[in-house]
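PROTEIN DESIGN WORKSHEET
SECTION A - STRUCTURE
LENGTH: 92
TOKENS:
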């Protein structure tokens, strides 16, 4: 939300349930609400044509490390079928 927009009205879950008609009329007129559950904000009710809030990007994300940085050596020499046969020997 930008600094020019007023803070949306808080709306409890009970108010939404009991006064849904009033809330929907207000939303269709352009009003926004912050939905709360036991006083804790859990969601936002906004008109469909309202612009999505933008997040300021302080710095771009950079990827560091990853799997390649671990330098894991692959062990080769035996195929998977031979390994499975060895593991299944106990069951025969």
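SECTION B - SEQUENCE
RESIDUE ASSIGNMENT:
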């Amino acid at each position: 939300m930008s600094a020019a927009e007023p803070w949306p009205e808080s709306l409890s879950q009970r108010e939404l349930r009991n006064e849904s008609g009033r809330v929907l009329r207000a939303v269709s007129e352009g009003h926004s609400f912050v939905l709360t559950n036991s006083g804790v904000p859990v969601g936002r009710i906004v008109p469909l044509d309202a612009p999505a809030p933008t997040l300021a990007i302080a710095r771009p994300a950079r990827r560091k490390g990853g799997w390649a940085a671990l330098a894991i050596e692959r062990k080769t020499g035996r195929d998977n079928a031979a390994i499975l046969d060895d593991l299944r020997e106990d069951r025969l």
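SECTION C - NOTES
DSSP finds three helices and three strands in the chain.
The first helix runs from residue 13 to 18.
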